[in-house]
Design brief:
The complex is a heterodimer of chains A (510) and B (359). With 510 residues, chain A is of the alpha/beta class. Chain A folds into two domains: 2-249, 3-Layer(aba) Sandwich (Rossmann fold); 255-282 and 312-462 and 474-485, P-loop containing nucleotide triphosphate hydrolases (Rossmann fold), CATH 3.40.50. Helices cover 35% and strands 24% of the residues of chain A. In chain A, the strands form five sheets. Chain A has a six-stranded mixed beta sheet with strand order 6-9-10-3-11-12, sandwiched between helices. In chain A, strands 18-19-20-15-21-22 form a six-stranded mixed beta sheet, with helices on both faces. In chain A, strands 2-1-4-5 form a four-stranded antiparallel beta sheet, covered by helices on one side. In chain A, helix 13 packs across helix 14, helix 13 (362-374) runs parallel beside helix 15 (412-425) and helix 14 (382-396) crosses helix 15 (412-425). Chain B is mainly alpha-helical and 359 residues long. Chain B has a single domain (58-338), classed as Orthogonal Bundle (ABC transporter involved in vitamin B12 uptake, BtuC), CATH 1.10.3470. Chain B has 15 helices and eight strands. Chain B has helices spanning 16-23, 27-43, 60-83, 91-106, 125-149, 154-172, 186-190, 198-216, 219-228, 230-235, 240-266, 278-288, 300-319, 327-342, 344-356; strands spanning 51-53, 56-58, 109-113, 116-120, 177-179, 192-193, 196-197, 268-270. In chain B, the strands form four sheets. In chain B, strands 1-2 form a two-stranded antiparallel ribbon. Chain B has a two-stranded antiparallel ribbon with strand order 3-4. In chain B, a hairpin with a 2-residue loop joins strand 3 (109-113) and strand 4. The longest helix of chain B has 27 residues, at 240-266. The chains are: A alpha/beta (510), B mainly alpha (359).
């Protein structure tokens, strides 16, 4: 195996990085060998992103050394790192959707001829670069014309076009569906064969095991260990990330959930119900019932209409058919404000662009929805705001030195908890959670799922959307299944198996 | 190169207590203003002296404050607009419109009362002022409707009124300069109350009202949320449109008040030149005050200081005898320097170079 090539292409040792109030990295280490896929694992806040930023020159380390081959290097900026042969594809694709595919690949280093951009050569080079990744698209069309998966490939093509020896992929698969992930990994295997070292940050355990040769685990900014993937069982990996033994029960479905105490809630009138709710082009009219203390899971593949359904329920898009029955009163939500007034909260799929207000403090983000419902003049005094924020921060375990920190500086998992706090502050009757655990590490995932369960037991109705079927099966009391923007069935969550859901998705009649 | 690259508080940096000060938001605007005043004082020994004449306070400082009043008002109105990631380049035209409305309604007719000639207003002055303010509000609502309702880009939406507004103002004045003869109208721009110019009380009242709204209601939070992330703000239940319309309406109203002061000050309305290029000074004042054009966090106090910086600079240029041909260039160089000094990354680079040189 190439892994045993004696000479690492990259070695980082004793890396320290302090931010005000936090030791982001202390004595962190990482080795990469040519032609390997190396997974960098750790919980949110373990220092994965910081380590990558140090490697790619975004952050300067306070101490430690980085060696490329035998040479000591100090990457000063992204451009410098690229010259050294270190290229990065970031979690959020940072390309320009309105520029052409070819322009995106060569942006900043357009091939020149007689002082002018050599467009013809650029097109040819772009086609060749993408062909190497088995992607065949019209490179003159704007990038935004293509789905996220293709955009991801373009980002990789760009990273490779600088003659990279090391390719860093930060959460490359979080917005891809299974086929696309498979295709991405095919591509990566090709790169591996070319001797490129691939460093790969992900939260998906399956993918880690399917594709990586070795794993480096970080915890609290410290190096925990470097393992051959084949030698490290999953549970052992999780324990190393979390730093303690995991109780099996955290993964299992608590049995007491379906006891008689809740039986009454299943027969009475639902808290909310969607009746023939639909919108042309978004989702066909469908019925859904939400009961207090119950989780309704929404199953279906990417693009099956899950998010569209949530947007209709929350009044983001206006339904052109049907209504939402709120305890007897039929309502048509015209805006999120209407839905919030009816007692609904919504954690959107895309935390960064639709959830958080990055530069505002955690406190302000938490009280925002409550204050919005009260209006401009019924102001919550600062002291009271702080009380609300501090209480929810403690209750949900948001990890932050204080509530005045901008929310954008928190890790993904903590941002998600703060968004949950925003809705809990409004004391809602129902919460819609769209991919609440996307881009969040295993331990935070468990914490968030526990929180969801705990709130549910207090009588909250929950609509749970996730592309991880196992997660849906684990938390849902009932599962509504969507296919091609149409509800195709509903099954009882207790004892449901993945194949039951897939049978519905595949089209077998219930 | 040393391996250790700690954040270095080296010899050119300020002592520790002052470092905390420089991180305060209003530090750089205040420092700039202080520096300009000191320069003014150095070249003009009487600059800081304030004397009492006829029960009014007189002096260069009072003069600067008084002359900056319209700009301060427009800057206060512009600040929330910029905080929502917008801009309003029609304020200069709105100043002209409202001045023209007030002047044409008041005018002044000469009548003989008890044997003495007296000028009377054509329309009751209070009514005329209210109509002028209403016109400004209407202009602001129009901008707000285009931005929030029609979804136009703010710079384009307000460009329409910037161009059309001058036309409207000239229609009202029928292309002439309307002179006002009615004495009470002059109080707004030239009068004194308890020794201070009346215009300052107006600025103080508007600024205080806005500060109260921003800090004692949720308006500030809502404006910042909409400015930073309009989608997230909407998903949290805010009515972003209503907030946008409100800030543009307020901006129009502020411009209208400024228009009254300007018209009262020069005792006339000139549709062509009143408030000319004021939008640019206002945007500059907001920027100098530390509010980013990218929206989000804003500082009303900063904008007020920004307006004073611009006025002090103008004063300095005149009192230092800078030839009029180059005073625009001087002004822009100073502004450029101030903006650069406010940029954290520029200061860091500069410090690095300073540190490197002596070695």
């Amino acid at each position: 195996m190439v892994v045993n090539a004696s000479q690492p292409v990259l070695e980082m040792r004793g890396i320290d990085k302090r931010f005000p109030g936090v030791n982001a990295l202390s004595k962190a280490a990482l080795r990469l060998f040519p032609g390997e896929v190396h997974a960098l694992m750790g919980q949110n806040g373990a220092g994965k992103s910081t380590l990558i930023k140090v490697l790619t020159g975004v952050e300067t380390p306070d101490a430690g050394e980085i060696r490329l081959g035998n040479e000591l290097v100090h990457p000063e900026c992204v451009g410098h790192a690229q010259q050294l042969g270190i290229s990065t594809v970031y979690q959020e694709i940072n390309l320009c959707p309105n520029l052409s595919v070819a322009e995106n690949i060569y942006i900043g280093r357009f091939p020149m001829r007689h002082g002018m951009v050599d467009w013809k050569r650029m097109q040819q080079d772009a086609v060749a670069a993408l062909k190497a990744l088995n992607v065949d698209v019209d490179v003159s069309l704007p990038l935004g014309h293509y789905p996220v998966a293709i955009q991801q490939m373009v980002a990789i093509a760009r990273a490779l076009s600088t003659d990279a020896r090391i390719l860093v992929l930060d959460e490359p698969t979080s917005s891809l569906d299974e086929d696309e992930v498979a295709r991405l990994f095919d591509t990566l295997r090709g790169l591996k064969a070319r001797g490129i070292a691939i460093l790969f940050v992900t939260h998906f355990l399956d993918q880690t095991y399917a594709f990586s040769d070795r794993i480096t685990v970080l915890r609290n900014g410290e190096f925990v260990g470097e393992y051959l993937a084949a030698d490290l069982p999953r549970m052992a990996l999780i324990e190393k990330m979390v730093g303690r033994a995991i109780e099996e029960s955290a993964f299992a479905r608590p049995a007491e959930d379906n006891n008689a105490e809740h039986a009454a809630q299943d027969t009475g009138a639902p808290l909310f119900s969607a009746q023939g709710l639909g919108k042309r082009g978004a989702v066909q009219p469908l019925d859904l019932e939400f009961r207090a203390g119950r989780v309704l899971g929404l199953g279906g593949l990417l693009g099956s209409g899950r998010t569209e359904t949530a947007r209709l329920l929350f009044g983001i898009d206006r339904a052109d058919a049907g209504s939402v029955d709120c305890g007897g009163a039929k309502r048509q939500f015209r805006s999120p404000a209407d839905a919030i007034r009816a007692g609904i909260g919504f954690c959107p799929e895309d935390r960064k662009t639709e959830g958080i207000v990055a530069e505002l403090s955690i406190r302000e983000n938490i009280v925002l929805a409550l204050q919005a419902r009260r209006g401009i003049f019924r102001y919550i005094p600062k002291r009271k705001q702080r009380e609300i924020a501090d209480r929810l921060i403690a209750q949900l375990g948001v990890r932050t030195p204080d509530a005045e920190k901008p929310i954008g500086q928190l890790s993904g998992g903590n941002q998600q908890k703060a968004l949950l706090a925003r809705w809990l502050a409004t004391e809602p009757k129902m919460l819609i959670l769209d991919e609440p655990t996307r881009g969040i590490d295993v331990a935070a995932k468990l914490e968030i799922m526990d929180m969801v369960k705990a709130q549910c037991r207090k009588g909250l109705a929950i609509l749970f959307i996730s592309s991880e079927m196992a997660e849906v099966l684990r938390v849902s009391d009932r599962i509504a299944v969507l296919r091609d923007r149409r509800k195709v069935g509903e099954i009882d969550g207790a004892g449901a198996q993945e194949r039951d859901v897939f049978r519905l998705i595949a089209g077998a009649e219930q | 190169m040393k391996a250790e690259t700690m954040p270095q508080p080296a010899r050119f940096a300020l002592p520790a207590p002052l470092q905390g000060l420089t991180r305060r938001r209003l530090f750089w605007p205040c420092a700039t203003l202080a520096l300009l005043l000191i320069i003014n004082g150095a070249f003009n020994p009487n600059f800081f002296s304030i004397t009492v004449k006829n029960g009014h306070l007189y002096g260069a400082l009072i003069d600067i404050l008084n002359r900056a009043a319209p700009l301060m008002l427009v800057a206060v109105g512009m600040t929330p607009v910029i905080a929502t990631r917008g801009i309003d380049i029609s304020v200069g035209a709105v100043v002209a419109i409202c001045g023209a409305v007030a002047a044409s309604l008041i005018g002044g007719t000469l009548i003989i009362q008890n044997g003495t000639p007296v000028y009377v207003s054509q329309t009751p002055m209070v009514l005329a002022l209210l109509i002028a303010l209403g016109a400004g509000l209407l202009c602001g609502l129009w901008n707000g409707a285009l931005v929030a309702g029609a979804g136009m880009q703010p710079i384009v939406a307000t460009l329409i009124l910037m161009v059309a507004g001058r036309g409207v103002a000239q229609l009202i004045t029928e292309g002439q300069i309307i002179t006002v003869y009615y004495e009470p109208f002059f109080i707004i721009g030239n009068g004194f109350l308890f020794g201070l110019p009346v215009s300052l009380y107006i600025v103080a009242a508007v600024a205080l009202l806005m500060l109260l709204l921003v800090h004692r209601t949720a308006l500030g939070l809502f404006i910042e949320a909409v400015g930073i992330n309009p989608v997230a703000a909407r998903f949290a239940g805010l009515n972003a449109r209503r907030i946008l319309i409100m800030v543009y309406a307020f901006c129009g109203l502020c411009a209208a008040i400024a228009g009254l002061i300007v018209a009262s000050n020069v005792k006339s309305a000139d549709g062509n030149n009143a408030g000319l290029l004021m939008e640019l000074d206002a945007i500059l004042a907001v920027t100098l005050g530390g509010t980013s054009l990218a929206g989000g966090r804003f500082s009303l106090a900063g904008s007020l200081i920004g307006a004073l910086i611009i006025q002090s600079l103008t004063y300095a240029i005149y009192s230092l005898g800078v030839p009029p041909e180059i005073n625009m260039v001087v002004k822009s160089v100073v502004v450029l320097t101030v903006c650069l000094m406010q940029s954290d990354s520029f200061r860091a680079t500069l410090l690095q170079h300073l540190r490197r040189e002596p070695r």
